[in-house]
Amino acid sequence: MPIYEFRCRACDARFEERRMMRDADVPTACPAGHDDVVRLLPAFAATGFASEGQGCGSGCCGGGACAPA
Q: Model pTM greater than 0.70?
């Protein structure tokens, strides 16, 4: 079961809840009992992409971003 992060707009508390994906947007209350809560979007890191002008030499990085021309 995924863990979702929430933030209370009333008291600015951040908290997590484990719930089914189908229940991701079901309203919830913060630990202090406030109802003005929003679900935060997860932050994902993108890795494996070569910088401009630097290649890995084999065309294996970032879906062909550094493939030889």
A: no
